[in-house]
Design a protein that fits this description.
Structural class: alpha/beta
Bound molecules: 2-acetamido-2-deoxy-beta-D-glucopyranose
Oligomer: single chain
Order of helices and strands: HHEHHHEHEHEHEHHEHEHEHHEHH
Number of domains: 1
CATH superfamily: Metal-dependent hydrolases
Largest sheet: 9 strands, parallel
Strand content: 5-15%
Number of strands: 9
Radius of gyration: 23 Å
């Protein structure tokens, strides 16, 4: 879940150059010439382009996109439908029909059936018809509960309620979905024409500083954990601490992971749970990659070099991801794809494609994937409004010259490689005892924790 309520300070904001303010008659003549040429180009372009175009790109590009998505499962790293289920129905799964337009249905749900919104409502962008039209092969469904529940009832709300509800609807619509917990399972579900449904836990604030809770999440089917959401935990800093002092600084002096946090990473390696570094601070990214003996992912983050929001991945960290053989799954959210130094009036599909170009140019096509963040953000670029639009993105990448093999890597092969590596590392570590280190909770002020 990502919200516009998150403040962001942008650095390197560009001021308009003084040169553009000069006005000469020469410039005027050039401008008139350019306008005439532009009008001609548009007129000719429309005459040729319209018959060829289905979704704003040529048939050849769209045909390649559709072929890729038919032959390779499109694996998306992050969708917040579970959070929508919670905010709109308090996890009463029977109140929505995922076979029909969810946006429509949720508009009619009674207020008393909803949970109290902390953020303005985000209307759902996901349902079975839209996922099918979008040719989604596998989806990580994010288990998320607001950071305000940390050290209160986060575990009840997330583990014991939202995860259960997610299992309920995956099983209820078993002609569309199949619960999957392995890399082979993704391919089997894809062959059976089911959307492989994987579960990810979005935030270490839902662990209650307890290793056993991490293991319980694994037993419940979670195959990644995002180390933090947009709040610090006593053992790991979030991206917010790239902008202000860490919340737990006073007790811990950490700017990334502390020693217990590093053990969480190692326990995830031992379990075969993927380390997800979306939402964490830059230092937590660095510390986690150094602590992990398996590849890591960013389940829904874009390129900081193109749009300098701290939810995105900075260039030096991209180099670490390449070395780690990990994966950055590009987020489509307007707030993370359209900002300085490439800020435009409105976010566009083309800008999302620029993030793919950027990461591909920096570290290669083997380390980039898709993590759109549908149902977790209020606004998506024109052309990528909901979960039905993935083919348009792949057609745009094809138009930019991406080859079939490259599109297949981005769609799913890169993720499958990472997941297999994580499973192999788990197998290699088989026989190692679990980490049972206790967090020194007495160093924290936790009024809702009992001491017996
Ligand atoms: C779903 O319903 C919303 C709200 O009425 C509408 O704006 C949207 O176009 C619909 N989407 C589809 C795919 O039918
Ligand atoms: C927070 O930690 C940093 C790094 O150790 C230190 O420089 C700073 O003084 C600390 N701030 C507070 C408020 O404790
Ligand atoms: C935090 O840093 C200060 C100053 O270096 C040190 O005195 C204190 O013991 C540290 N606290 C913890 C919990 O590590
Ligand atoms: C941006 O979006 C607004 C609202 O939809 C629209 O009025 C405006 O013309 C758009 N601007 C550009 C440059 O496309």
């Amino acid at each position: 879940m990502d919200t516009f309520a998150d403040p962001q300070v942008n650095i390197n904001e560009k001021k308009p150059s003084i040169k553009f303010q000069q006005k000469t008659s020469v410039n005027k003549r050039i401008i008139i010439g350019v306008v005439i040429v532009a009008v001609l180009v548009v007129v000719i372009g429309v005459a040729i382009g319209v018959p060829l175009s289905r979704r704003g790109t040529s048939d050849a590009n769209m045909n390649l996109a559709l072929k890729v998505l038919r032959e390779t499962p499109l694996i998306d790293g992050h969708n917040d439908l579970p959070w929508q289920m919670r905010q709109f129905t308090r996890n009463q799964v029977h109140k929505v029909n995922l076979r029909e337009n969810t946006t429509m249905q949720w508009l009619h749900i009674k207020k008393e059936d909803m949970s109290e919104p902390k953020y303005p409502r985000i209307y759902p962008q996901t349902d079975i018809p839209r996922l099918k039209k979008g040719m989604v092969g596998a989806q990580f469904w994010a288990i998320f509960v607001d950071c305000g529940s940390q050290d209160k009832d986060a575990i009840r709300q997330s583990a014991l309620d939202t995860t259960a509800a997610t299992h309920t609807w995956i099983n209820q619509y078993d002609d569309a979905f199949r619960l999957v917990t392995t890399s082979d399972g993704i391919l089997e579900a894809f062959k059976a024409n089911r959307i492989a449904s994987l579960i990810g836990l979005e935030g270490g604030h839902m662990l209650g500083n307890t290793m056993g809770v991490l293991r319980t999440f694994y037993l419940l089917g979670c195959r990644y954990m995002t180390i933090t959401h947009s709040c610090d935990t006593p053992w790991a800093d979030s991206w917010k601490s790239d902008l202000k002092p860490s919340e737990y600084n006073s007790t811990n002096n950490i700017t990334g992971l502390n020693e217990w946090g590093k053990k969480v990473i190692k326990e995830m390696n031992r379990l075969g749970m993927i380390v997800d570094l979306s939402h964490v601070s830059k230092q937590t990214m660095i510390d986690s990659i150094e602590a992990s003996s398996a590849p890591v992912i960013f389940s829904h983050s874009s390129a900081f070099g193109y749009c300098n929001h701290y939810r995105n991945v900075q260039d030096d960290v991209l180099q670490m991801v390449k070395k780690n053989k990990g994966l950055v799954m590009v987020n489509f959210y307007n707030g993370y794809i359209n900002c300085p130094p490439n800020k435009k009036e409105n976010a566009t599909l083309s800008q999302v494609a620029e993030h793919f170009d950027y990461i591909k140019n920096k570290i290669g096509v083997d380390y980039v994937g898709v993590g759109a963040d549908y149902d977790g953000v209020p606004q998506m670029p024109v052309g990528l409004e909901d979960a039905s639009t993935y083919p348009d993105l792949f057609a745009e990448l094809a138009r930019r010259g991406y080859k079939e093999e490259e599109l297949k890597k981005i769609a799913g092969e890169n993720f499958l490689r990472v997941f297999k590596d994580v499973e192999n590392e788990r197998d290699r570590l088989k026989g190692n005892p679990p980490f049972e280190d206790l967090y020194p909770v007495e160093s924290l002020n936790l009024p809702c924790n009992t001491n017996f």
